[in-house]
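Weekly modeling sync, notes
Attendees: S.R. (lead), two postdocs, one rotation student

Agenda item 3: backlog of single-chain predictions. S.R. asked that every request posted to the team notebook include the full sequence so nobody has to chase files. The rotation student volunteered to paste the first one in as an example of the format we agreed on. Action items at the bottom.

Example entry:
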Amino acid sequence: MNAPCARCNKPVYPVEKMTCLDKTWHKACFSCESCGLKLTMKTYKGYNKLPYCATHYPTTKFTQVADTPESRRIADQQKLSEIEYRKDKVESLKQFTPVASDVGTRQAQAASKLASSAAYTQREEEEPEPAPAPIRQPPPMAAQPPQPMVQQQPPAPKMAAAPAPKMVAAPAKAAAPPPSTPRYVALYDYTKNDEDEVSFVEGDVIIDASIIDDGWMEGRVERTSQYGMLPSNYVQKM
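Predicted structure, as returned to the notebook:
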């Protein structure tokens, strides 16, 4: 009876029989145990009754390691340092809230920022800007005519005062109603720049108004009862 092959466990016929390492092999099955390279009786190296090539032949050399108290202390210190590092890392990560950061989330955040910025810019463009207040010019000084020289007269002699005639009081006439002044409504907010000006907000009613020049007028803010100067292009006649 033909012996089985040590590699494929199939019968080995005398034509393809090969005996090596106390085993029977097919010539095609006699290969390296690690890489499968086909071997011959001249190129194989046996280890534990298994064939190996010269490259993958197991070495019997050992690496010398110094096992001293100092080396053991260093190894233990490295282990403790790694454990403390991992513990500190876990404690520091507990202080932060995990946030899902993926492509969809970042795209949504960028889109919301762009939309809010565009809406804010559009709102600023739509709101009308108040016209700048005109520069107030001081009224021109009127030229005063020269005062005539008054020559002092000598005092007149004192005369005896005559009794004053009795005056009969005339009946008081009814006071005429004050003339109605125009009313104005504020179109914009205004903050006073001088002490003789008044501040107001949009929608305030201006009463007792009087025009000074093309750019300024005087009036009383009905809400605060303050009277002073204000720019006439900030209000509109009601």
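Discussion: group reviewed the output briefly. The chain has a mean pLDDT of 78.
Action items: rotation student to repeat for the remaining queue; S.R. to check formatting next week.
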